[in-house]
Amino acid sequence: MTKLFRVEIESISSSKSRSDFSEIDLDLVAEKILESGGIIKPLVLKKTGFEKYEVVEGHFEYYAAVRAYEKNDHETEVNAVVISPESEEAVLKQVEAFRKLESTNPATATSSPVPLTTTNTNSRLTSLELRFENAINDLKIEQKRDSKKFEDEIKEIKGKMPKLMAPLEVFNTLNIVELTFRLKTTGFGDKKATKIAESIETERQKNEFSSLSDVVARVRITHGKKTQKAISSDKMVEIIDSWSKISFN
């Protein structure tokens, strides 16, 4: 007695090698299996152990199903006729009879005026072209997806980055408290930072600073009975470098 089952691909083995069949043909049929949701020609299997089966007929279809599983691991089962021990001999004779019929049927050889080898070659070339075209399209889609993802990530990073204020803008716009705080981050003590900030405020009320050199030239503080430059050129370089590394929120 024989029964039709859904059998796990991984529980099936074949006495034939996969290399006996064209990978192009297997790939082509695998695509059709995935499109239709399964093989329409059930495998003929015999049981060899607990949940273990061997292909009796349908070796090509078996390897095509394996290829379909490699492409989509959701395709884990195949339709199969599992022959019982008592009917094995009769089924094997039936399989052999069909094989002989197929090999001796003249209609197979004469149904087309085109040589079989030419037809197979054309079919394989067409299959290769389709696979190549599909691979290119998949690659283009993946590249677009990666490019869009990269652009979105850059935008997100830029959005999170604090807006850096140019040093000249700092000297021209920040109030005395904020300016004092920033000057202290560059190494000035509390008292000196406050004096410099007040001098900057006084000078920029007269005229806005036109450059950092203008800041160096005009900003002065008292030292004893004398006045001196509050920020030297070298110190200005340190200030710019320091502020470029610190995020002020």
Write a structural description.
There is one protein chain. The protein has 249 residues and is an alpha/beta fold. It has 2 domains: 2-106, Conserved hypothetical protein from pyrococcus furiosus pfu- 392566-001, ParB domain (Alpha-Beta Complex), CATH 3.90.1530; 167-244. It is 59% helix and 15% strand. The strands form 2 sheets. It has a 5-stranded mixed beta sheet. The chain is rod-shaped. Residues 107-114 have low confidence and may be disordered.
Secondary structure topology:
Layout: E1 2-8, E2 12-13, H1 23-36, E3 43-49, E4 52-57, H2 59-71, E5 77-83, H3 88-104, H4 106-110, H5 116-160, H6 167-173, H7 176-184, H8 190-206, H9 212-218, E6 220-223, E7 226-229, H10 233-245
Parallel strand pairs: 2-4, 3-5
Antiparallel strand pairs: 1-5, 3-4, 6-7
Helix pairs in contact: 1-2, 7-8
State the CATH superfamily name of the largest domain: Conserved hypothetical protein from pyrococcus furiosus pfu- 392566-001, ParB domain
What name is given to the CATH topology of the largest domain? Conserved hypothetical protein from pyrococcus furiosus pfu- 392566-001, ParB domain
Q: What is the CATH level 1 assignment of the largest domain?
A: Alpha Beta
Give me the CATH architecture of the largest domain, please.
Alpha-Beta Complex
| Alpha-beta classification | alpha/beta
Beta percentage is 5-15%
